[in-house]
Amino acid sequence: MTNKNIGAALLFFSFTLMASAQTIASRIVDKKTNEPIPYATIQLSENQGIITNEEGRFSVTLEDTRPQTDSIYISSMGYEKIGIAVNQSTDSIIYLAPKAIELNSVYVSNKNLTIDEIIENVKNRLDQNYNFGLSQKRLFFRKSEFSNIKKLNVDFKKSTIEELNKKLIDSVVSIIPRKSQYYTETLCNLYGDFEKRKLHIIKAAELYDKNNEVSMEAMSKRMEDIFMKNVKPDSYLKIKSGIFGTKVQVDSILENNEEANAAKDEIKDNKEDKSHFLKHRKSELKSLMSSFFFNEDVMSNFLNKSNRYTFELVDYTNIEDYSVYIISFTPKRKEDFEGTLYVNTEDFAVVRVDYQNVRNLKNFKLLGLQYRDNLYKAKMLFNKGGNQKYDLKYLEMYRGRYFGVDRPLKVIEKNKHVKGRRKQNELALEIDAGFDSMNKYEIVVFDTKELTQADYDNSKENKSIKPEYLSKYDPQFWQGYNIIEPNAAIKQFTAAPETE
C-alpha cells in the first residue's frame, strides 16, 4: 500500500509496502536556509544506515526480516539529531535545525593542545581507531564516467587506397561522440581487509547509450574490410608520427584480428560479455580503498607526510554526541593537496576529510603530445562501530585527466616479397585532438560486520554475474534495495532511440 500524494506542495513519505519490505523516501533540508543537506546519516540501527546524496535525497528500505524498526534517526554535522516514526505520515521534506555547539568534557581538557600535538595524536592512534581486520561490508558502488572531446580535427593529406578517402575519414570523425556518459551501479557484499578481498555481487546495472557502440562497430568493420581487401598479408606497416616510427607485421594483425573476432562471436553466443564485471569492480574497490589517507605511500600524503603541510585549527563543531576539531591544511612548497580534517576531540579519529589537488599531479607536453592529471577530489566519512573502531561510511571521489595530440600520422604498407618498390600503399593525416575524461566514484557502506578467518574462507564470489543494461534511468530497478539516491543527471539520462 502506498500513501497518495496530497497536492504538489505536500507530499507524504513514499511508503511502498511489498511482500518483504517498506520503502521510505525523502529530502533533508536546512531549516534556516532551505538548502539541501548532503551526506546526512539516516540510521536504522547501531551498525546499519544510509546517507543522503549531494542533493540531500535518500530512500531507505526496511526489511520485514529485520527486527522491527519503529523509528529512523537523522543526523548531520552541525545539526540537531532527530528521530522519525516510520509509521508517521509526514512531508517529503525533512528539516534539520542547526545545533548550538556544545563542548564535551574531553574537548575542554584537550583545548590547550597545539595543532602539531593534535596531528601527532591522530597519527599515533591510527591503528587503534580504524578497523584493519576482516569484515563483511554491505555496500553500494556507483561509477560515473564522462568524456568530452574538446577538439577533433583530422586533416586528410593523402591515400593510395581509393576507398580510404577523405569522405570516409570525415565519416569516421563525424560518428565519434563528442560527449559520452557511462554509469555502473553495483550492490554487493565485500569480504576481507586492506590486503585481501572477495566480492559477492547482489545486483548490478549499467546505463549508457548503446548506439555509440553500434555506430563505431559498423565503421570499424568497414575499415577492416577495406584493410583486408587492399593490404597483402605478408606486408608490414610502418607507422610514423613526426620523427618516430614503428613496424607492425600485417599477417600478425590479421591473425590477431581473426582471433579477436572469433572470441567476440563466442562471447556474444554464450552471453558472457560481462564475465569480467566482478573482476573489474573488485579491482576498482581495491584501488579506492587503498587510497585512504591513513594508508602508506598514498598520493594523498597530507597525513603520512604531515611535515610537508601547514595545519590550522580553524573551528570546532558537533557530530551527533561528540565534538570535533575542524582543521584546514595547505601544502608547503610543491605538495599537491589542500582540504579539511574533522577530528574527534575524544579519540583523535578523523571522522571526515575533504580534500582536492591544488596543481596538476602530472603534466607532460612534448613533441605535440599532452597529458595532464588535473583532478583529484575526495570526501570520506567514517563511522564508529560497536567494536569502537571506525569503518568507511561514505566515499566520493573525482579523478580527471586531459589528453591531447597535435601531430602528423602516416601509415605506410611495405612488402619485401614483391618486385620493384617495397612501398605499396600510404595514408597520411594531420591530427589535432584533445579530450577530457572524468570519473566519479561513490561508495556507501550500509552495514559492517566483523569476520573470523573461517568466515572469510567460507565466503563465496559470483564470477558470472552480469549487469543489466538500462538505456535510461529506471526508478523501479533498485526498488526494495538500499542504495545512494542518483543525482539529477543520472535521473535525466536517456539514450537515443536504438537504430536498426
From TrEMBL:
Xref: InterPro entries: CarboxyPept-like_regulatory
Keyword Signal: yes
Protein name: Carboxypeptidase-like regulatory domain-containing protein
Bilayer-crossing regions: none
Signal peptide: 1-19
Keywords for this protein: Signal
One Pfam family it belongs to: CarbopepD_reg_2
Domain of life, per lineage: Bacteria
